[in-house]
Amino acid sequence: MKTSRKRIFPPPYVERNKGHGRIEKRSIQASNALNEYLEPLFPYVGQVFRITRITTDLKGNNFQKRVHYGITSLTSEQADLKRLLSLSRNHWHIENRIHYVRDFTYDEDRSQVRTGAGPRVMASLRNAAISILRLWGYSNIAKAIRECSRNQALPLELIGA
Fold it and tell me: Residues 47-65: pLDDT tens digits?
C-alpha cells in the first residue's frame, strides 16, 4: 500500500537568463508549512523559501548548482514566488554595490582603524559619503572622490554648507 507524503514545497517558479558569459536557471519554492515550528525562533516568519541556482557557460560546460535557504516575514499574499526571487536578487545587488565601493575605492580591508568604535564610525562615514555622492547623481564613486579632492569646495556644496 502506498502512503502519500504531504509536499512542503509547491512547484517552483523558474527564471532562465543568459548573460555575462553564462546561462543561469533560478528556481524558487516557498512554503508556510514550517511557520508554526519556526515561530519560537523567528516570531515574524511569513514563509520559508529555497532558491536553486544552476549555472553553465554558454557551451553548457562548467555546471554549478547552488542551493540557498531563507526565511522572510512576508506572507505568500505579500510576496509571491516571482517577487521573492526578485527581492533576493536585488538584496545582493545593493550589498554588492556598497561593499564593492568600500572594498576597492576606500580600500577598507587595509584600514588601520581597529579599536573601540573607530571601525564602526569610519564605516558610517564612508557609507554617508557614498550615499551623498549617489544622491547627487554620481555613479562612479571613485571618480567623484577624485573630483572632490581636486575641488575642495565641492564636498561642502554637496552637503549644503
Answer: 999 999 999 998 888 999 9
CB 88 within 8 A of CB 16: no
Write down all domains in the chain, each with its CATH number in brackets.
Answer: 8-79 (2.20.25)
Distance between CA 83 and CA 59 in Å, rounded? Answer: 30
d(CA 92, CA 160): 31
Q: What is the pLDDT of residues 15-26, one digit of tens each?
A: 999 988 899 999
> Sign of dihedral through CA atoms 113, 149, 93, 32?
positive
Residue owning grid cell 553553465: 56
What backbone torsions phi and psi does residue 17 show, to the nearest 5 degrees?
-135, 150
Give 146's contacts (C-beta < 8 A, 6+ positions apart). none
Burial degree of 49 (CB within 10 A; 0-12, 13-18, 19+)? buried
Q: Please tell me the pTM assigned to this model.
A: 0.60
